[in-house]
Design brief:
Elements: H1 2-14, E1 37-42, E2 50-54, H2 67-77, E3 84-86, H3 89-93, E4 110-112, H4 113-122, H5 126-137, H6 140-153, H7 176-186, H8 190-196, E5 200-203, E6 206-209, E7 227-235, E8 239-248, E9 251-260, E10 262-263, E11 272-273, H9 274-289, E12 290-296, E13 301-308, E14 315-320, E15 324-329, E16 338-341, E17 348-350, E18 358-366, E19 369-378, H10 386-399, H11 401-445, H12 447-451
Length: 464
Amino acid sequence: MKRALSFFLTLITALSAFVFPAFAKTYDVDTKIYAKNYILVNLDNSSYPVVAEKNSNERVYPASLTKMVTAIVTFEKVSDLSQKVTMSKEAFEILLGTEAQVANIEIGDEVTVEELLNLTLVHSACDACEMLAEFVSGSREVFVNEMNAWVQKIGCTDTHFTNPDGLHDENHYSTAADLAKISIECMKNEKFMEMASKQNYKFGSLTLPNTNFMIQPGYTSYYYEYAKGIKTGSTTEAGYCLASTASKDGYNYLCIVLGCPVVDYNNDGYVEKMSFIDSKSLYEWAFNGLKFQTVLKQNQVVSEAKVKNGRQADTVQLVVDKDLSTLVPANLDNSAIIVRASDDTPEEVSAPVKKGQKLGKAEIVYGNEVIAGADIVAAQDIEVSRMLAVINAIKKFFTSTFVKVVIIIILLCALFYAYIVFSSNRKKKKRKRARARQREERLSSSPQRRNMPPDDLEPPKRYR
């Protein structure tokens, strides 16, 4: 069973790039949640949809949830967990006066790496973390740098550590969303999850209980039979924090709650750590109120697009390429779901079109919000019409901006040429008239012309 669970978690994690999906509907939680920040992620879909969240991208102090990274970096760098580690004076003294939770390991004590990992994940022992940091990387500083490199590698953009314990520091921060990514990656490691889910751990003569009271049956207010791991944390500045996972009726969730207070939740005079109660409330809300439902059937028509140069068809139907199931409210009214093509789906495509060719995305809208998406494809083949292609190419040629500019330039050149010719002819005529006038003036001023009778005199009469 453990191997099957590990394989499942490894598979879904490998399919994801640790980026929560663009089509992710977060629902209003109809119960009081005291956490300042939380995120609830479904693990049954490779895109890890976020079904509920509050301030999940706000930078806050993660407290001992930091130790998840301390443990996973150790798992990745140390292959032989039976190696022994000696408590140094430096590692011991760095925690003096901090009131940090420890396993009371003394200077010179030898403890195996596996024991230190159990103390880190089960008992949240800070002295175990200091020993691991020094052993794995040679120094605390180098180890913390490797922790920061690891979280950046898996896509955390709002996380920075200054120590391996989670002790308060203004520059030591994370977010609920980043801690979800960290938890999902840690869950891939079967040994990690085995340790994180132990109810207690026997160390020497001591039996140390897991600090996660959700998996402790003796804590009736907190116990949740469907929960496992992962890590607790608390400081004055961070409040009470918890990363956990729960499985019920085939559904699997991851929950991160941060900044939880202590509250007299039952009005019985006893204050409760709300990190456990908030997590339990979120799980019950999800298990009772959400279900997977097929909201789109394969080949369901979403819309259609115009086809340019299509033979015997000027439109093509756009259909869903496969069934799409997503988490929706258990009491969902199917008539309230709207399916539409996304804005980037083209209104027109050019032939040829192949059946199954991806042409856009469908959006499933519920309550005025997109809750899921799917690829939409061409429902049939459409061949290209050569005649239409030639006609449209000619139209396109003559309506293209370049051709229009060329035609305008040619017309302007023709007009300019006509103007030049007209102006030249006009000048020639003007010069011709001027020469004619000059000739007339010369003739009229000559002596012969002056002694000649006027042209309009009648010829002399001849007498017989």
